[in-house]
TrEMBL record:
Keywords: ATP-binding, Nucleotide-binding, Transport. GO terms for molecular function: ATP binding; ATP hydrolysis activity. Residues 4-226 form the ABC transporter domain. This is NitT/TauT family transport system ATP-binding protein. It comes from the Bacteria. The lineage of its organism: Bacteria, Bacillati, Bacillota, Bacilli, Bacillales. The chain holds residues 17 to 242 of 266 of the full protein.
Length: 226
């Protein structure tokens, strides 16, 4: 199944900046695809278009068979950003339950599902903590739990580990891989400027040129541990 399709996808911002230029790419279900390229090459712009936060100015973009603007309203897409965006006045578990609350899931089920994903990311002992009481790595784990709680089919991660120290980053990379392997239907799109991170994590790498963002090459990564 094809999850995302870009055909000559382009974005020119109102100030005239061409951020993305005629990108062609097809992403299949279950892939872990990394976008790699220098800062400013248009990676975040591609993500914003996939999530419907920004409109393409040229070409065509389909996400799970619909236009990206419709995709924004869907529950099967979740995002994780570098600046984790937890609500500061809500406890960890309240933050994680939020996406389910917005979907009208019952309190009991919200609680169960939040506890399940918090255990998956190793935060079972910090559910009642406030975000400010957590380390950077723990905040990122909480953000990942919040993204996973509604069982998304498409997970978009924009440099999620960029601000973490090396040990925390490597730990979270391994955890993310294990979560992804547990769900063969989950497609992950991951932005990084770190080539090593991309090779370690992904099944395919889209290499982007410096501005204006074009895809230079798409490389298959051999699987080291089948
Ligand atoms: P990356 O995520 O690869 O660092 P971005 O997608 O953020 O790149 O940006 C691509 C280019 O578009 C950059 O030159 C950036 O300055 C420019 N840009 C990003 N957002 C806007 C905007 N809203 N308006 C004008 N230019 C923008
Ligand atoms: P849309 O795709 O819905 O038209 P945009 O992604 O183009 O929305 O951004 C909305 C507005 O924010 C634009 O008018 C843009 O000029 C402004 N903007 C946001 N970030 C930047 C930036 N880094 N540089 C210049 N303008 C920006």
């Amino acid at each position: 199944k094809e999850w995302v399709r870009m055909e000559r996808l382009s974005k020119v911002y109102p100030n005239g900046t061409t951020a993305v230029k005629e990108v062609d790419l097809s992403i299949r279900e279950g892939e872990f695809l990394c976008f790699v390229g220098p800062s400013g090459c248009g990676k975040s712009t591609i993500f914003k278009m996939i999530t419907g936060l920004s409109n393409p100015t040229g070409g065509k973009l389909t996400v799970m068979g619909t236009t990206a603007n419709e995709a924004r309203k869907r529950s099967d897409t979740a995002f994780v950003f570098q600046d984790h965006t937890l609500l500061p006045w809500s406890s960890v578990i309240d933050n994680v339950m939020l996406p389910l609350a917005l979907r009208g899931v019952s309190r009991k089920e919200r609680q169960q599902e939040a506890e399940r994903v918090l255990a998956m990311v190793g935060l079972q002992d910090h559910m009642r903590s406030m975000p400010r009481e957590l380390s950077g790595g723990m905040k990122m784990r909480a953000s990942i739990a919040r993204a996973l709680v509604a069982k998304p089919k498409l997970l978009l991660m924009d440099e999620p580990f960029g601000a973490l120290d090396e040990i925390t980053r490597q730990t979270l990379q391994l955890e993310l891989l294990s979560l992804w392997r547990q769900d063969p239907e989950m497609t992950i799109l991951f932005v990084t400027h770190n080539v090593f991170e991309a090779v370690f994590l992904s099944t395919r790498i889209a290499v982007m040129t410096p501005r204006p963002g074009k895809i230079d090459d798409v490389i298959d990564v051999p699987v080291p541990f089948p």
